[in-house]
Design goal:
CATH class of the largest domain: Mainly Alpha
CATH topology of the largest domain: Alpha-lytic protease prodomain-like
CATH architecture of the largest domain: Up-down Bundle
Oligomer: single chain
Structural class: mainly alpha
Helix content: 55-70%
GO molecular function: zinc ion transmembrane transporter activity
Subcellular location: Membrane
Largest sheet: 3 strands, mixed
InterPro entries: Cation_efflux, Cation_efflux_CTD, Cation_efflux_CTD_sf, Cation_efflux_TM, Cation_efflux_TMD_sf, CDF/SLC30A
Shape: elongated
GO cellular component, one term: plasma membrane
Family: Belongs to the cation diffusion facilitator (CDF) transporter (TC 2.A.4) family. SLC30A subfamily.
Number of domains: 2
Distance between the termini: 23 Å
């Protein structure tokens, strides 16, 4: 028995947030890149590089939400194209990791070199960049808790906000100490932060692609809840996983007691999965007590 998905993935519902964040980020990226090149600030260039990754990541996230809602005309995508949003999140991880490595290489390469970044330009661009990032963060925060796709974009922008704070800090430190090395130190700190966030998001992406149980659902709890239903003697072959953010899926075999009404058991089990565990799509097989279940050997 199958229940419907609902009205689309969490990423699709929050697509407008991605659109506005993309416009803000893309608009500011060119400004920061030019300022970084003119001021010779590695912290500014590092943040501009990360913002470039933001532009690409947000663009991929928008494309993924569009693909996810595209109807299947082949008849072969039985789960639709919702996983596109998870692949976009994985792409965000790769972009974040790549940018952090690039920043680190550039920072170490500049150690000992006499570059003197223009601290005044760094301060102005850093403040403007922080304002842009805060607006984008406020927009994306509303969907980050529901969609892994939006969360990837949210973490990208969060790292950018920290980058802007780093640029401001570097500008202030250079102004008051006269030591240009602060530009390199701040750039390295940005690189480490971005890499840590990339690893954290990457673990969530791999959990979905590996079809692990959703992080807020314990399979043993589902088994107990189903076994407590009147007429259910046993629950086996339970599988529960996340198709995409906001779409958890489950399958299970239910062995019913003698005289139990299989339709009543099926309806009750479906309701428990939907209301207690947030699983709106469940495929349940009801078996009588005298039936020998011959499932897959794997």
């Amino acid at each position: 028995m199958s229940a419907g998905h609902g009205h689309g993935s969490a990423g699709t519902r929050h697509r407008w947030r991605l659109v506005v964040a993309f416009a803000l980020t893309a608009g500011f990226f060119s400004v920061e890149l030019v300022a970084g090149l003119l001021s010779q600030s590695l912290a500014l260039l590092a943040d501009a590089g990360h913002m470039a990754a933001d532009v690409v990541t947000l663009g991929m996230a928008l494309l993924a939400t569009s693909i996810a809602t595209r109807p299947d005309r082949t008849g072969r995508r039985t789960f639709g194209s919702y996983r596109a949003e998870i692949f976009a999140s994985g792409f965000a991880v790769l972009m974040m990791a790549g940018v952090s490595v690039y920043i680190a290489i550039e920072a170490f390469g500049r150690l000992g070199q006499p570059a003197e970044p223009a601290s005044g330009v760094m301060l102005v661009v850093g403040v403007v960049g922080l304002a842009v990032n805060i607006v984008a963060l406020l927009l994306l925060r509303g969907g980050a808790g529901e969609s892994l796709n939006v969360k990837g974009a949210y973490l990208e922008v969060m790292a950018d906000a920290l980058g802007s704070v780093g640029v401001i800090a570097a500008g202030l430190l250079i102004t008051f100490t006269g030591a240009a090395v602060w530009d390199t130190v701040i750039a390295l700190a940005i690189a480490v932060f971005v890499l840590v966030r990339a690893v954290m998001l990457g673990r969530e992406v791999l959990a979905v692609l590996g079809q692990h149980a959703p992080k807020d659902v314990e399979p043993a709890d589902i088994v107990r809840a189903l076994e407590e239903l009147p007429g259910v003697d046993d629950v086996h072959d339970l599988h529960v996983w996340t198709l995409t953010s906001g779409m958890d899926v489950a399958t299970a075999h239910l062995t019913t007691a003698e005289q139990a009404d299989s339709q009543v058991v099926l309806d009750a089990a479906t309701e428990v999965l939907r209301t207690r565990f947030g699983i709106a799509h469940a495929t349940l097989q009801v078996e009588s007590a005298d039936h020998t279940c011959e499932g897959a050997t794997w």
